[in-house]
């Protein structure tokens, strides 16, 4: 059976790449040699999302089993018990300082994804839900999110009618407001 890479991130400080795969596995590869160094957690079947903290000391994965896991970026050892999300995960990212992990999740029965923010300490505590305000009449799926210097958060996604949505704003600005983006238009920026 062919195994596809469904997401990847680079742990630059460790010269490794973390791959989420279509068979539900998480794999760590040495970038220079191209050799696998670890086949870690298995999320069952289905695609896996992966993310790494900016320093590479922590990594995270979430798959079709809806279990969010955080690992040591060097050894692959779990740093906390797995947390079961209440819905289908679509995107995953660490904040720039690496103290929080944000997951885009489609709650059961909902038409719009929500963001859940986890503070990373010894255990994954209950997530803080981030309210999204989306100027779109169609159901929206978040496809990617990320953080930049100054704790600015960016999100992009799409609606069932084919429209794209995007936004960039300070990560502490709530609620988050996303607007449709026309092809060739500048990214919508929040104040």
Could you explain how this protein is built, in words?
With 191 residues, the chain is mainly β. 0% of the residues lie in helices and 54% in strands. It is built from no helices and 17 strands. A hairpin with a 3-residue loop joins strand 6 and strand 7.
Quick overview:
The chain contains no helices and 17 strands. By secondary structure, the chain is an all-beta fold.
Largest sheet, described in full? Answer: 5 strands, mixed
Q: Spell the H/E element sequence.
A: EEEEEEEEEEEEEEEEE
Continuous helix count:
0
Q: From the alpha-carbon coordinates, what is the Rg to the nearest angstrom?
A: 16 Å
| Computed structural class | mainly beta
Low-confidence stretches: 184-191
Strand element count = 17
Binned strand content: over 45%
* Amino- and carboxy-terminal Cα gap: 49 Å
Residues in helix, %:
under 10%
Query: What does the average pLDDT come to?
Result: 77
Strand order of the largest sheet: 13-17-16-15-14
| Overall geometric form | globular
Based on the model shown, name its key terms:
five-stranded mixed sheet, 191 residues, four-stranded antiparallel sheet, mainly beta, disordered C terminus, 0% helix, 17 strands
């Amino acid at each position: 059976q062919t195994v596809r890479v469904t997401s990847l991130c680079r742990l630059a400080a460790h010269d490794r790449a973390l791959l989420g795969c279509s068979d539900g596995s998480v794999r760590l590869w040495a970038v220079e040699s191209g050799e696998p160094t670890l086949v870690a957690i298995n999320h069952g079947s289905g695609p896996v999302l992966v993310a790494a903290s900016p320093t590479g000391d922590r990594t995270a994965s979430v798959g079709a089993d809806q279990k969010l896991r955080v690992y040591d970026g060097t050894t692959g050892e779990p740093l906390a018990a797995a947390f079961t999300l209440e819905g289908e995960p679509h995107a995953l990212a660490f904040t720039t300082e690496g103290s929080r992990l944000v997951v885009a999740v489609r709650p059961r029965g909902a038409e719009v994804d929500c963001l859940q923010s986890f503070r990373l300490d010894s255990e994954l505590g209950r997530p803080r839900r981030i309210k999204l305000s989306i100027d779109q009449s169609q159901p929206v799926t978040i496809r990617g999110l990320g953080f930049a210097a100054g704790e600015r958060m960016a999100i992009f996604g799409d609606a069932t009618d084919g429209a794209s949505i995007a936004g960039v704003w300070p990560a502490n600005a709530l609620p988050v407001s996303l607007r449709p983006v026309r092809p060739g238009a500048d990214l919508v920026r929040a104040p």
